[in-house]
């Protein structure tokens, strides 16, 4: 299984990231040795996917406490780094969650000798990483029963191995189904503007021998109408207490189209994606990104100079359109999140 | 108003086309002096839009009868050219319609001296062109009442001046509303894979001073949910007797999204787009286009090598999703086409 994020070495190590902006044409691994490099990598989507940026940020905090004299000073550096990293992407809750967890962990160990402090923080970052991988596998195990022989599954964006520590979220049930010999096709929305479906999902699924059919986002309705799709699975960036789910822009449209065609629509996400402090989706902050992702995102200018652009990076799918949320603890109805 | 197609000169003239594959970055006008150049221009979408390719094909037939000895020989050339041109794009009915009309017209004038025959065929091609411009204006006049001050209108693909002889189909009501001082915003779907919305519609609307907001196709549901859109108008490539409408891929999805948000969905098309020989949309032939439009359509490769692609160029919107069809004769309900 592909690893998008890896800590290399021990406390004096570095973070290695598979640069997802270069896929599928170039397989480039970046070595990040400074927090600001991790910030940049998250900001410009070299590493992306809610769980993956949480894990990358945790290792980023480990970088912030290297070559520092004394645990108190190290902890101050870590807090500064935490503030920086949290600002890199506002919508994904896992980023803030991972950073806050490590901050609290470090704060409680400030009296340790610095070498021990560093070792403990690294161990905790690794724990977040391993927990994430285990969660993904559990999501896969709970969701694998949805995948039947000969089925067509549609997915949007990339909630796969590249977005997590391993296996992915939306793609975890597909990987486990494939491992147990089930044959099926996956219709992959290319996912404009940044083409995570075309560049990342199509790539990682085909790397694992899964039958991929790439389509434009505008073709999802048609493949549903033609009876090619029996199931939709997508990931999530944040899920409110009532089950309303923020995910990549276009997800809400896919959910409406699935409903119109009577196709079950599932969200796959670890429970760290739940934000029970938000009653519903209207409170989820939505990130707006730059015009150039749309007008020049593909190597050449594709729109007139000076044109006005609207570029929300996420949308919110109302709980009513969601058949179930596949978590590491089982498949929940959106209404069961608060139990 | 922009002219995408123009006949320059008299019977020994040539066809000038605005190369729409080069917009919006380069404004290049092509001079076609051979039928095969017109065929190529239609095939690779240098000229596109159902009415426009009908007009271009008519002038293409005029090219086929230049420098020919005798009307009988000219007519044979014209018939050969007609067969060639009809094969350039299978879905748009106007192409076959224009070509057949000119073929019948020429066939009835085979006894004329060749110079008179050539003049008559050119005059008939010009008549198709002028009728098209007049039809577009009439569509605009019938549809202009749908556009209210402060409204948001969403459109998909390009059914504008570039797709017709003038004013366009879906865009004609917008141009007429703008001419009479109404202010409104137009949300333009970029329209993957070939980006006719981003490259053409955004360009021609902003050339005429209309307030354009460019979005990705995947954002249409979100702008509807946010209450930014009160009306959808799209064009059509072919309309079956029951009102089922073939148009650019993605139109069917937009129609479903409009319905889910209670937004009226109008098709604007001249009656030459009606194909009453087809009982419903299932009989409309759909063109499938090459993989590279999706995987390499934008200047660089955006999907893994060897990936399977599904690329239908059109979809069919069922009549039940269509609020009305704006024609040169007024706004019809889909059920009223056969009257």
Descriptive report:
Two copies of one chain form a homodimer. With 339 residues, chain A is an alpha/beta fold. Chain A has helices at 35-43, 50-64, 71-86, 93-107, 114-143, 172-179, 196-207, 220-225, 251-260, 292-295, and strands at 5-8, 14-18, 29-32, 152-155, 185-189, 211-215, 231-234, 238-240, 245-248, 265-268, 274-275, 308-309, 314-317, 324-327, 330-332. In chain A, the strands form three sheets. In chain A, strands 6-5-4-7-10-14-15 form a seven-stranded mixed sheet. In chain A, strands 11-8-9-13 form a four-stranded mixed sheet, with helices on one face. A three-stranded antiparallel sheet of chain A has the order 1-2-3. The first copy, chain A, is globular and about 65 Å long. The first copy, chain A, starts with a strand and ends in a 7-residue tail after the last strand. At the A-B interface, helix 7, strand 6, helix 8, helix 9 and strand 12 of A face helix 7, strand 6, helix 8, helix 9 and strand 12 of B.
């Amino acid at each position: 299984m592909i690893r998008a994020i890896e800590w290399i070495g021990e406390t004096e190590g570095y973070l290695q990231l598979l640069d997802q902006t270069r896929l599928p044409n170039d397989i480039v691994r970046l070595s990040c040795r400074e927090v600001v490099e991790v910030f940049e990598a998250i900001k410009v989507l070299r590493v992306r996917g809610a769980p993956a940026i949480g894990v990358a940020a945790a290792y980023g905090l480990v970088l912030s406490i290297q070559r520092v004299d004394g645990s108190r000073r190290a902890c101050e550096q870590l807090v500064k780094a935490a503030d920086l990293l949290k600002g890199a992407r506002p919508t994904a809750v896992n980023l803030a969650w991972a950073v806050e967890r490590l901050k609290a962990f470090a704060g409680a160990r400030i009296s340790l000798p610095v070498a021990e402090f560093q070792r403990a923080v690294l161990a905790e970052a690794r724990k977040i990483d391993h927990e994430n991988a285990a969660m993904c596998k559990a999501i896969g195990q709970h969701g694998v029963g949805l995948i039947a022989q000969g089925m067509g599954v549609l997915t949007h964006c990339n909630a796969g191995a590249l977005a997590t520590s391993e296996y992915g979220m939306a793609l975890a049930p597909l990987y486990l189904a494939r491992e147990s010999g089930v044959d099926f096709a996956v219709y992959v929305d290319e996912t404009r503007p940044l083409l995570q479906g075309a560049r990342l999902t199509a790539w990682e699924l085909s790397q694992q021998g899964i039958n991929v059919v790439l389509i434009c986002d505008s073709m999802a309705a048609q493949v549903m109408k033609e009876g090619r799709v029996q199931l939709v699975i997508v990931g999530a960036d944040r899920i409110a207490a009532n089950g309303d789910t923020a995910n990549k822009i276009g997800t809400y449209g896919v959910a409406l189209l699935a409903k119109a065609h009577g196709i079950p629509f599932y969200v796959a996400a670890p429970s760290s994606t739940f934000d029970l402090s938000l009653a519903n989706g209207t409170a989820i902050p939505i990130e707006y990104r730059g015009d150039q992702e749309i007008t020049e995102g593909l190597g050449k200018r594709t729109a007139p100079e000076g044109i006005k652009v609207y570029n929300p990076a996420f949308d919110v799918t109302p709980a009513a359109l969601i058949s179930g949320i596949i978590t590491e603890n089982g498949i929940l109805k959106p209404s069961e999140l608060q139990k």
